[in-house]
Design a protein that fits this description.
heterodimer; A: 556 residues; mainly alpha; Cytochrome C Oxidase, Chain A; 16 helices; 66% helix; 1% strand; B: 314 residues; alpha+beta; Immunoglobulin-like; Cytochrome Bc1 Complex, Chain D, domain 2; 3 domains; 5-stranded mixed sheet; 37% helix; 20% strand
Amino acid sequence: MSTTTLERVPAAEPGAETEPSYLTAEHTVASWLFTRDHKRIALLFFASITFFFFVGGFAATLMRLNLATPGGLLQPAVYNRMFTMHGIIMVWFFLIPSIPTTFGNFFIPLMIGARDLAFPRVNLGSWYVFNLSGLVVLYSLIMGGADTGWTFYTPLSTVYANGYVFAAAMAVFINGFSSIMTSLNFIVTIHRMRAPGMTWMRLPLFVWAIYAVSVVMLTATPVLAMDTFLLAVERFVGVGLFDPNHGGDPLLWQHMFWFYSHPAVYIMILPAMGVVSEIIPCYARRPIFGYSGMTMALMAIAILSFFVWAHHMFVAGISVYAGVVFSLMTFFVAVPSAIKVFNWTVSLHKGRISFDAPMLYALSFVLLFTLGGVTGLMLATLGIDVDVHGTYFVVAHFHYIMVGATVSAFFGALHYWWPKLTGRLYPEIWARFAAILTYVGFNLTFFPQFILGYLGMPRRAYTYPAEWQPWNLLSSAGASILAVAYLLPLFYLGWSLFWGRKASANPWRATGLEWATSSPPPQHNFERTPVVTLAPYCYDPQRDTYVTQEGVPHAG
Amino acid sequence: MYRWIPFWPDTAAVNAVAVNNLYVAELGLSALIMATVFGMMLVFCIRYRQGSAVSRADRVQKTWHFEIGWTTATLGAFLILFVWGAAIYVWLFQVPPSDEEVYVVAKQWMWKTEHPGGQREIDALHVPVDKTIRVVMASEDVIHSFFVPAFRIKHDVVPGTLETIWFKPTKTGTFKLECTQFCGLQHATMQGDVVVMSGPDYARWLTQQGVHESLAEQGEAVFRAHGCSGCHDANSTVHAPPLAGLYGTYVHLQDGSVRLADEAYIRDCILTPRSFTVAGYPPVMPDFSGQLGEDDLMKLVAYIKSLGRQESGR
């Protein structure tokens, strides 16, 4: 058994060391800036989005600092601009690109056994477009920021706001093209470039998730381009589209905006679901429960996400019957999410579970996503939405999904694939500590906001009555813990780059093709094209063995 | 009823009671779901941890019947919640016959409220207890949202139209009125008080406001000042749709559609009459958009409604 292993794993082959890894193949700055290697582009994206994560996080820090006292610390105008820029940067410059452009970019070709994405130049172009939009949003931020909320509700955004709304909207406009380029690339790659034997039902769930999200991105993002373009037209030219004083309809903006931005919520969560579906089987040492159900749930969520947008508008003045229909659709989209939660949980049954950092992040994901999900059900319930809409309840709900779940999955992915990205192992103790700290800090930050919301604290308020201070103080205290938990990996992962133990090709004994090549992979990914013979996740917890997708059995 | 639950917000209207029941039901379901997921996770994580020697043989191979099981269960539970929530929503947003009416004009960053008697308030609204209050709302600038947490009632106030909601307070006291739609710089301070008073106190309060003209009377002055009376007065010779008794009836329009003559319809007709030409009348009324503020429009609407009441009183 072990002899076959030696033969089939490239890193162990004699002479495998001679091909340099993608990191060391070329050394010049130009070799990075003009690279067409999906792995290097993934790291370029990683640098960009990490930068924006901390810019957006800085805005959040100021907000929580301001809300620690009822009177506030910042000028109202500054606070309003901070929450707007926090929203815009976190949504479009971190959450939407986060997992797809980094781990998707890096691992889709590796997981399906391809040499690169279908369009390497488009991939590089996407990074440049992303950075261009990033420069525009930084311009908007440095000049003073927009003051409309990330939702740009009209006619406030087009007629009344004095901030740099145009620049912010243009940043979002340009950013959309990066999403479109990346998603198109993924769709074509997954359709056309799978290795021999890699049938659709043998695709790892991460690939399925990226496929689902790419379909949503490709179809929804053009609508965002139209939205922001029309917004700019009304703000700059004064054509009456959304301003009722010029014959426009303010609700038209909301319909158009949420037609993109509700699917965008699933753009943020679907890749995270994919990551967790990779991590849980690997650390539970057993196949995922209900693989085909998981793929169907992913696609069902992707499709249904287009038919729920008006649930953001239950109290906005849409017809009562429209409200009823959109509430029903929202309950439907919750069903596949519930299936996934149960499948992940039952995937632990009769496993052989170890609690390394990626698994801790994945388990946090499941719990936080479930709490975000059940509070989402409350918001989908019309009678309750009338009460809690526009309050901190909503803020807490979507942070549970988008920060609690997605960012936990992002960190889970970062740790899980760190050896493959860098060739180094991260320090396990520190990583577990950061994972637990993230979970504690996150709950402490956002759970009090559910209570504040139900007590009636409106969102986007720089000041509040003194009776709500205890909950706000608790939330701010939690945020400081969360900030430490998010900063920690920067240090210990940075340390591991230089002093971490060298990683073997497959340190987690995982089944995917990405582990069949060396860590870090060579420039062309595989020494030879892999041939796939098995479904993913062929782990056997009883004997503690596993079989890779190439059909190579491994003893414990 | 749910005072025993910690941090439970004030419940001061019939609207709030209905929402409370649903909320408690959903909290219960959420707790059940969380407990199931967390409990299963905990048990599996302990029992099947790496070091445990327990057997992993005979894993579940056929997963689909489990999946169908929990799909059906969640779908069933969700549909119950959906129907319950939708029923409350339809009830909340369909205005029943009301005892009292108030007008609210939202602007950056204040709530201006007016009573039919002409009493005006800023960032405050006095209403009597145990009466169904109908609230007609307009915005002068951006979208605001009228929210009284103790009543569990909220509706956006969208510029360019009138929105109508209702509530029925069940206890006296002062309750928060908030704006929950970000409306610019001082959004956070766009707050007021809803003061619920007993019937006699409220009647006394109304008389103490030093008002000489009711809202309808003020509306009549606007009606004359803008020349509406030239055509729409009862003894006018111009062929214009009569306004007496208009409110609350169905109007047949030139384009074949039928519209209920509610506040929003009357407002729209004043601002853009050509879009609402009444069947059998020439489209000659001039456009008043941009000429009338929301305050004047509210007064005009109140006046035209009062014509309706006089009619039905006859």
